[in-house]
Design a protein that fits this description.
The chain is α/β, with parallel strands linked by helices. Helix content is 28%, strand content 13%. The strands form two sheets. The chain has a three-stranded mixed beta sheet, with helices on one face.
């Protein structure tokens, strides 16, 4: 089973998507749930894991921020590595607040939405 979840910065659950087959990709589930529209309407942004790369291609006003990836031909620069570290620190409370079991073919991700009107949140999958 695959879920998307909204949590506050302490990992407390705010919203849970409908269940989808475990093979559903994170960005596909986010598109079906209109995550970008909901975040924009609320004036929020999201820190997301790499499963959400390509979801938000608005360069001037991004709502979803993901980490940088390396390839065989492109090694991460020190700045990109530091950006990945900062994003991971911001997502850590969300990742720890969601279920940790990966048994039964389930995947996990969460979306961080702090209780006060925040400048950002974090997006992952369950």
């Amino acid at each position: 089973m695959h879920f998307l979840a909204l949590t506050d910065e302490n990992g407390r659950l705010i919203w849970l998507s409908t269940a989808r087959p475990g093979r559903t990709h994170d960005s596909t589930a986010a598109r079906h749930d209109h995550i970008l529209a909901h975040l924009r309407a609320a004036g929020l942004g999201a820190l997301a894991d790499l499963g959400f790369r390509g979801l938000d291609n608005d360069i001037l006003d991004p709502v979803i921020v993901t980490g940088c990836t390396a390839s065989r031909t492109h090694k991460l620069t020190p700045g990109e590595r530091e950006a990945n570290r900062v994003l991971a620190v911001g997502r850590a409370p969300v990742e720890h607040g969601s279920p940790t079991s990966r048994t039964g073919g389930s995947s996990r991700s969460s979306v961080l939405i702090p209780p006060e009107p925040p400048d950002f949140c974090a997006l992952c999958s369950l």
